[in-house]
């Protein structure tokens, strides 16, 4: 009776272990099948991310060249070299998984085992992202320290705007009164054709002009005529 009881327990344990093994195998097969189906899309996404990282590395080189302090430049260069090394390793791993270098089509064996390969690539991608974040934080900290050491720029000068006032009646009248008055120009009249034109001789200046005007006046002529009659 005791032996039969132990046999029953052995059958129960073996059956439960077999069931758990079957469940684990089914879950593993399901994960591998899912990874097999999405492998082309994920490989293309990894390649695009890696290409973008390589393009950013070129911009990081230009940023490091602008730093003048030697210690800061060495620290940034060390981070940049580490980023480039991990990027090159990822590129080599992806090239070994695809059929042709630069393509996104996986090999059959690589696609079947993509579930295990994907975990390794994702771990390196996280490492690459963390290094890029560290580089950006270090670079921004250096730029902020340089900006704090420099004196602040002087405030901009206020712009002078000309004030325009509309003229009123009094100011307009005053400005017109201030203008110099011109003497009215003499009008030149022409007589009809066939008549003689009397052109006045210009007046002489000084006493000679006064004497000439007295001699030409009608009163002086009449007085000269009366004197001649009396004589």
Automatic annotation (TrEMBL):
Region entry Disordered, spans: 149-186
Entry superkingdom: Eukaryota
Keywords (A to Z) from UniProt: Membrane, Transmembrane, Transmembrane helix
Annotated transmembrane regions: 6-26
Presence of the UniProt keyword Transmembrane helix in the record: yes
Name of protein: Uncharacterized protein
